[in-house]
Structures are given as C-alpha cells and as structure tokens.
Protein 1
Amino acid sequence: MTGPVLATLVTVTVCVPDAKTTSPTRYCNGFPRILTQVHRSLKFRIQLIRKMEVLLPKLPSFKFSSPICCCSISTRSSSYVKFGFRRFSSLSVCASTVNEAVAEPSLGSPSLGHTTRPHFPILHQEVNGSKLVYLDNAATSQKPTVVLKTLQSYYEAYNSNVHRGIHFLRQVYAKATDQYEAARRKVASFINASDSSEIVFTRNATEAINLVAYSWGLSNLKRDDEIILTVAEHHSAIVPWQLLAQKVGAVLKFVNLNQYEIPDMDKLKELLSRKTKLVVVHHVSNVLASVLPVRDIANWAHDVGAKVLVDACQSVPHMTVDVHSLNVDFLVASSHKMCGPTGVGFLYGKIDLLSSMPPFLGGGEMISDVFLDHSTYAEPPSRFEAGTPAIGEAIGLGAAIDYLSGIGMQTIHDYEVT
Ligand SMILES: Cc1ncc(COP(=O)(O)O)c(C=O)c1O
C-alpha cells in the first residue's frame, strides 16, 4: 500500500499580503508550506510551470523570466539526476517580489498564510519597491519573531554552558540548563516520544543519521547484512550508509519508483528478508512529495527483525508525527526546516536501542567517569551529546515548536493540502 501524494501544486507559495488584508486568495500564503522543493517529475514540473504562469503574472511586479525559474527550486539532492532532473544552485523565484496593491484578497476570512505572514520579519522587507516572495521552505524555513526573540533573550540574558559550570552566575547557568532540557521535553512531546531521554540533540538531521550509522550501524551490522533504502532518499540518508557498508561489507538495496513516480512499496516488501537489518525511508519526500506508509513499513521490517530509521525532515514541520503510533526505531529532523534556528536537529531513538549503543563522538558531557586509560559513558541522551551543544539554538527550536503547536499541526496540514 502506498500513501497519498500530497497536493504540491498548490504549495507553491507566493507571499504577498499584509496583516491588514482580511480575505484570502488561494495563491497568497505566508506560512512556510509543505514541499516546495518540488523536483517531482517532468510531468509535475510542467504542471507547476503552467500553474505559476497562471498565478504569478497576475501580480504586476512579478517577473516570470522563463519556465526555467520553476525548475530551479533548489535541492541538494542529486538522487534524481538520473531521472533527468537538472540541478540548479538557487531558486530565482525566491528572490522575486510581488506588488502589494494587487495582492489584497477580496473574499472570505483571512487564510493561515495571511494571518501568519506578519510573524516572519524577513518577509517585511521590500525589494525594488515590492514585497519579498519566499518559496524555498523545504530547503530551509524562515523564522518567526518569537524564535528570533528567544535566541536574542538567551544570548543577552542567560548565555551559559549547560550541565556544568558552578560559578557566580549560578542562576544564569541553571536557567540555560533548564531551558535546554525544557526544549528537549518539547521535542519529545511534539513527536510523542515516551520520554525526553529518547531525544538526542544533534547539529542537524544529517548528523543524526550519521550518529545512527556509526554508533548503531558499526556495532550491529556485518558482512552481507542488508540495508533497504528508496532511491528518493536525501543524500544525507544515503551516503552515511554507503560509508558504513564499505566498512563492514553490508549491502545496500534500493527500492525504485513505481509507475506513479513514488517509491514502490510492493518492491520494498519483496526486498525484505532475514538479511535485512535496517530500512531507511523518508516520511515525506523532498523530491517527490510522496508520503510513505511508515507505520506499515515499520511492521513489515519488524516482522523480519529489521530496524527502521525515518527521515522526517519534511513531515515534522507540516503534520502531526507520532513516533509511538508509527512504531519506528529511529527518526530524525532538522530545526531549521521547522521555523527554528540552524545548527540544531534531533534524533529520536527508542530508549532500549539508544541505551545499547556506544558513543558516536568522545568528549565532555558524554562521560560518566574518565580514567587515563579508559572512560565510562553517560546514559542517553548525554552519551551522544559530546561537547558544548547548540544551547541557544535548541532553546530556539523549543520556541519554534511552541509556535507550530500554537497554530496546530492538524491546522497546518489541512491548510497545506487543500
Ligand atoms: C528529506 C530531507 N532529509 C534530510 C535533509 C538534510 O537536512 P540537514 O541538511 O538539515 O541535515 C534534507 C534537507 O534538505 C531533506 O529535505
């Protein structure tokens, strides 16, 4: 069974109106929308170009230079080069602007896009006398004021290291630790993890995947063990497994696309066997807009004794993600794609798995005791957080989660797919 393909055509976001506008036009949205990184298929791109040709010229100052603009929505994934997609370094539409005067919506109540647009200061600037359009949310989202203020407040008022440093700023130190751990609890509750100890802060999703590859992978995989992935995975979910496979002699097996140009779930089922030790899949694809049936995949994988790692970079910011009901073993995401700061992401891992895993990086924070010839290690999550973490950024991620939760993930999802 294959999950639905999200309606990405309507997700091309043109940010136009101001808070003062009272009614929507469907093509004007300020909120970071799902899956604007839409190298989906040639057919899709043609549809997209047509759609943009219809919508964008209605805005007088919008310069639709050529269809190639639409194709240039940036992606760092080249998995699709072999399907004929060209790679572009930037999205020229992103920097385009629209004229506010024509963007006044005329009917109905304000859309989520209209009500949230004022929250994003970067969208308030004018370029060549017109308002900024930002379309590249799948690559990184813009940050609402509440996140920017949280970062500023951390650095201005209570910047301190965490879990250590008994000094005269004791209260400041305690506040940084409290807020950092509160952010971890917010992440846990946002994805319905059992406990905050199942959340490891990393630099980004890429580092989270590498953590699993080097820690869990190196100690659990051996020659001829198999890892199943889809051809639609992001580089960050392919390359770490290539590196691991080269080290231990494991084999990567790829699920191709079916006739609907989404990963073929029948093929995935066929590939599963007792040799399979890990299945690595995206939840929502940054290139195809497909939504994979992660709960089914986890059940199929568990039936043959394999673990499942889900790349949730493009789902966590846009829909309710519940690790309990999905029953996945590992899940990763990046803060900067969910209205939070760069420099921080997270790994969710079932606690029994995390507890059984050796450290990834060595250093301060991750140890229990250090002797000259050996060390003992802290329990998760500290075991995997060597060195000083991105404290302010993690706290900022907590503020982003508050922001998204305040709107409601179901509201966001409904808005983005209709
Ligand atoms: C689906 C998906 N996975 C992983 C990543 C990697 O995220 P990061 O660069 O924040 O580690 C991205 C980034 O575009 C992505 O879209």
Protein 2
Amino acid sequence: MSVPMELEYEKFIEQLTDTKPQILIFGLAICLFMLVGILRILFGGKRGKSFLLYGPSGSGKTSLFAQLKSGTPPKLGTTTSMVANEATFPIAGSQGPAVHVVDLPGHPRLRTEIDNYLPTTRALLVVIDSVDFLPTARNTAESIYELLAKPSVQKKRVPILVVCNKMDRTSAHSIEFLRKRLEKEIEQYRTTRSALKDTKESDVGGLRLTKKNVPFSFAICTNPIMFCGISVVNGDVSGVNDFIKSNA
Ligand SMILES: Nc1nc2c(ncn2[C@@H]2O[C@H](COP(=O)(O)OP(=O)(O)OP(=O)(O)O)[C@@H](O)[C@H]2O)c(=O)[nH]1
Ligand SMILES: [Mg+2]
C-alpha cells in the first residue's frame, strides 16, 4: 500500500472506531427495517383498503352495511342484493377514520364476484345467520375453506371475522356451537376434497392451511380468524366496530 493510501485507510479505521455505538445500532435498525419491508413486498404483498362483507343470502350483510354507515338498521327492511354495494364512510358511532366497506350479494351465483374484490381487501367479515345456520352450514364452511385456500388471502394473512348475526333471537346458536360446527364441516369438506382430487391438503391453493395431520381448527390457521356475536336489529355491532377499528 502506498503511503497516502495507508494514511487514508488508517483515517477510515479511526473514524469507524470513533463512531458512537448508538449511531451503529440506529444504522443497523434502519437496515433491518428496510429488509423486513422488502421481504414483505416480495413474499407477503400489501393488503388493500376494503372491508368485505361476505356470507350466505339472508344473513344480514346489507342490514349490517346500513348499520355501520348510518348507525341504524334499514327501516324499510332489505331485498336480496343482486350487485355489490360499496361506499367509504366513517363507522357510525366510532371516532375512527373513513373506511371502504363492500357488501357482496350472498346468492351463490353472484358470490364469485369476490374474486374481483380480493386484491383490494384489507379484512374479511363472513356474516352468518346464527338462527337459520344449519341449512347453510355446509355451504358456508365450503366457502370459508375456499377463501382460506386462495393464495391472495393466505399470503397477505388477511384477517377474518366470522360475524354471528341475529343474536337477538332466542333460538340463536351460541358462538361456540357455530365455531365448532364450522370446523367440523370444513374438516369433512377438506377430507372429501383431498380424497376426490387425490391431493394433499397442503396442495390446496399451493399453500398450507393448517399443520399436517391435524384436524382443521380456526385457531391453527395461518390467517387470524376471530368470531363475534352481533344483532343488527338491536344496533349491537360492537364486535364488528372493534374489528374494523383495529384493522383500519
Ligand atoms: N332478527 C334479526 N333479523 C335480522 C338481523 N339482521 C338482519 N335481519 C333480517 O334478515 C333479513 C336479511 O337481511 P339482509 O341484510 O338483506 O341479508 P343479506 O345478507 O344482505 O342477504 P343477500 O343480499 O341476499 O345476500 C332481513 O329481513 C333483515 O331484516 C338481526 O340482527 N336480527
Ligand atoms: Mg344483501
């Protein structure tokens, strides 16, 4: 090494050793933060802005949409939705920011519309009828499973809230009953599906839903899945409000 270069090198080492440890830690923290950001973009993807109301026909999605928007359930009742109903508004009664909410029609033929909305979905709310649940249990379980199997839902770990509506009715099933029944139906569907298609559960959507050889349960899903009980007619939708607030 020539003399001037040697001097430069020594100066550089001197500067490095002079640097305060706090500055080094700060620099490392920034690098780590950037690395996490890059990994999230590459492997996770950013979630969108919409809160999607999804679920069987008649479960109360449009009623809930109106309640969230205006703070009261629709006075003139509702009719079966034929198209998606969407708007951006601050949730009535909460101090949070405006959020974009989409109410999807529950009719099985119109439900496929969900694929258009998933890329911009922030969180999913699966609204079920806690009274008239059993006739739709299998269908609902299947559609929850299909949702969970979608790479866009899994990769972005889209949070899901299963909203058990109509809790004002005395014949409403308990949240625990609804959760267990859905888990049972999903497990059955998953087993039949893998037997028919000769695929392993881990192949569904190219990603794994739950741990291998473990019966399906919401608790061990890769997506955060929560349950809450509400009654739109009584204006008791705090479980939904809290979920939206914590994910807005
Ligand atoms: N008892 C009771 N009835 C409710 C409640 N919420 C909604 N309903 C009633 O359930 C029926 C269906 O409600 P909608 O909001 O139209 O249901 P939906 O899920 O939008 O149905 P689709 O548009 O067909 O998918 C209406 O008669 C509502 O008045 C509730 O909390 N309790
Ligand atoms: Mg509707």
